[in-house]
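Section: Multi-chain targets

For targets with more than one molecule, the full set of components is provided together so that the structure can be written out for the assembly as a whole rather than chain by chain. Components appear in the order listed by the source. The example entry contains two components.
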Amino acid sequence: MSMHHVEKITGVGDPQCFEGEAGKPRFKEGDRVRIKDRPDIFYTRCQMFTRGAIGEVAVVTHESVPPEDEAWENEQAPAEWFYIVRFRMQDLWGDYPSTYPNDTLQTEFSERWLEPA
Amino acid sequence: MAEEHSHKAAPMVDEVSDYEVLETAVRELAIEKGLFSAEDHRRFAEYAHSLGPLPAARLVAKAWKDPEFKKLALEDGIKASLEVGVDWINDAPTGFGTPSDYTDLRVLEDTPQVKHVVVCTLCSCYPRPILGHSPEWYRTPNYRRRLVRWPRQVLSEFGLQLPADMDIRVEDSNQKCRFLVLPMQPEGTEDWSEEELAQIVTRDCMIGVALPHPDRKADDPRPVHPAVHPVEHHDH
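Its structure, encoded as tokens over all components, is:
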């Protein structure tokens, strides 16, 4: 965490300090999205079990520098919108019991990981 | 010799893990480098150790009693936290919260149809400013790997068997949002005060692995049971 970042977030909060930096969100609640299987080098928060899966945007959460940049203190990288995406368990795990077709899992992505489905 | 003493337990108390050595080394280097002072470190450690689940229990109880407050909690968890005495941004000595607790709290409302449960598959993200430190099991690979894969089995290991027609929603806390489960208010507690209600909202209820129960309070006395198979051969 750089001194620049500390100054930016003090008294404001993180992610609040990135408000207004990412423009207009590309997706909205209810949109169907596919998780891209992008390469990642050394650090990501995009879990392997979601790669390629299709889900639905549940919440458009906030703007922030993505962790893939933040992890290297690349805090000048542009902020992105973040989204909580809802998946049906059966779409993530092939053998999830069909007795529970409506069980779901939600997890969060920055915009670079999503494409319309 | 080794065989002869193989029944002896390995020393536990005096062992220092590699991570503890690493933490001490990094902390001392940071102090020498002037990144923060030993006094800063002490103040922060004291703040961290003062945290616990009681404010979150009050938030839940207040949301049960007051529909307007519940609306606020669901819309803006950080603002709602202020009403139970937790300022996510300014309470910590840093002035911006803790370095790993980002300040976006999301309250997940259980319904008769949907039960929420929280995990961090990546490591240990947890709403510490309002819920205190996470239990040890929350950080284990076992819980983190299995909850996203077999949530019903894992919940039943906690003693929570959900009916088949109730849906589970696992929330993987992998970015800057932090999550708190707002469980359903149990039947028979309709005329309870906010304070009484807060006493039945335990930490596990707010992670989502347990349900609040009118006859089970966070500070109930814990009965001590005699051992079923008392240890007979130990050397002290």
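Chain B touches chain A at residues 78, 88-90, 94-97, 99, 102-104, 106, 121-122, 148-149, 151-152, 164, 167-177 (CB under 8 Å).
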